[in-house]
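Predict both folds.
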Amino acid sequence: MTIKGIKIYNYLIISILNKLPNINKQKKDFLVKIFVLFLSIKGRINFLQLSRYGNYKEQRYRQQFEKTFNFLEFNKDLVLSTKGSKYTIAFDPRSYIYKSGKSTPGVGYFWSGVAGHSKWGLEMAGIAAIDLENHTAHHLEAVQTFTINNKDTTLVDWYANIITTRKDALREISFK
């Protein structure tokens, strides 16, 4: 599998990773290869697909994905490196993802707008930066919604917490 202009992608990814703190060379090399694979693989992406098209075994991908990575900071730097000058922040709190089984963390009944009723699966909230001049949107982060067992906390409180904990990074984009 070959990507045309892969050097341009590598340069952009490496330049942004160099700005982020606490990323060693091994993690940087892994992330560059992962991002290029995400752009290259057609269809569903899972650890088996990554090992098929990538340089590492399936277990290595699983181990690396268990480690945290600040996608919001990475995507924020990526957005700020583009030519847009006026951004606003968008928040989509309800994106339903079908998932069968019971062992996946966070699985439960969530509202599906397409089906018009609650269905078994996962839900995520998406945060994006909208470029007002170029009429485009850049995805910043996806946050999984977990079922709330506490009666004092509502779903709206959960969504508000997502925004307030990320307010500093989001302000850097929207007040640029």
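Second protein follows, with its predicted structure tokens after the sequence.
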Amino acid sequence: MLNISFGQQFNKPIVITLGFFDCMHKGHVALYDVARSIANQNDCLCALLTFCNNHFEVLGMDAKPIYTFEERLSIYKNVGLDVVASATFDKQFMNLSADEFLQVLSRYDLRHVVCGFDYTCGRDRKNSSYVKQYFERIGVGCTVVEEVLQDGQKISSTLVRKLLMQNQVEKANTLLSQPYFVTGVVENGRKVGRTLNFPTANLKISAQKLLPVGVYAGRAVVGRQSYPAIVNVGAKPTFDLQHNSVEAHLIGFDGNLYGATLTVELTKFLRPVKKFDSKEQLANQLKMDVESATND
């Protein structure tokens, strides 16, 4: 999969899908499936446009992307995308009119454009009908994909984010192309888990990422191996540590993970993060967490 900058010269023919794609939910997958089918029919590459930074921050909003850009690249690769065109959402980009944005996009060898029914672009917020008319005027086909519903609700990144923050990770995962995950490099921790017979991998996580606080069952992927895990997302109040972090106990793993890149999927919410009166109480709870994580 190729990663190019928005506006960068790229001479191969592409079908491109427009959006932000801060995850790949079923609505996004529907867009991709249309683009992939058209790309295959026309013997060209399938591409996607996204932002490589936290656009919420630029807009002054108190929100974080569901995934980091690096995590999203791995998702795009998993679904089979050929090309990612990544734009930096800054004041210059934000001030582009729809026509200015579409003119830059038109520099590519576009064979077709795909967008969602609710897509808008430019400071003048032109909608998908305008985008379709724009490209058809210059001889490029454009397909607008209708909304995708589940249980009567429109599938959206906003809905996924809401479910995650409500600890409804199982429901959120039904909307996603793969279970919600966190990727980070394992760093040295306080090694308290070892004294409880529950050694944990402490992940270095980007501050620009949504973290649904709680204790979860999940799976940890190390290289080509996968292990069941219990995962603490958030503070460690038993030890008076209030900053949010991610640490995972890999069930059945014996080895050294320091410096390794670890991907941890969250598959089931077990309980809220809470403060225990002693390390012994915490150890007993962790035993119950392991039982809950492995009995499904």
